[in-house]
């Protein structure tokens, strides 16, 4: 974990969050500024700055995250009608927190382009 990272602080409990799920590798919590009725953030506990910094060894963590996305979509009733998974990478990709994370959005018709 990184001492100065917002998401590392959320995962280690030093900043409160509305936690949904936690295991040894990942942490899931509600976004504080949701853009959909369901807006969860899934993060690895390991500090990885973005998709650009992934290593082969991180594949298992990403697999765990995507399995949890599928499970949460079912749990929250999103799998039937659909949902969106978003990852923003870098400045032009809209990444505002430099800790890899995935947004799980659902509960309404999501238009494209987003807005």
UniProtKB/TrEMBL annotation:
Gene Ontology molecular functions: catalytic activity
InterPro entries per UniProt: Histidine_triad_CS (IPR019808), Histidine_triad_HIT (IPR001310), HIT-like (IPR011146), HIT-like_sf (IPR036265)
What are the HIT domain coordinates in residue numbering?
Answer: 6-115
Q: Which residues form the active site?
A: 101
Renumbered ranges of motif Histidine triad motif: 99-103
**PANTHER family in the cross-refs:** HISTIDINE TRIAD HIT PROTEIN
**What name does this protein carry?**
Histidine triad nucleotide-binding protein
Which species does this protein come from? Leptospira ognonensis
The opening ranks of the lineage are: Bacteria, Pseudomonadati, Spirochaetota, Spirochaetia, Leptospirales
């Amino acid at each position: 974990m990184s001492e100065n990272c917002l998401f590392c602080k959320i995962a280690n409990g030093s900043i409160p969050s509305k936690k949904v799920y936690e295991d040894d590798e990942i942490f899931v919590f509600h976004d504080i500024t949701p853009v959909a009725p369901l807006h969860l953030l899934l993060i690895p506990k390991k500090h990885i700055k973005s998709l650009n910094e992934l290593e082969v060894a991180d594949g298992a963590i990403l697999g765990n995250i995507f399995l949890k996305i599928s499970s949460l979509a079912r749990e929250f009733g999103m799998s039937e009608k659909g949902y969106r998974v978003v990852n923003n990478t870098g400045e032009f990709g809209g990444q505002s927190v430099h800790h890899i994370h995935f947004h799980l959005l659902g509960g309404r018709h999501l238009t494209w382009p987003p807005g």
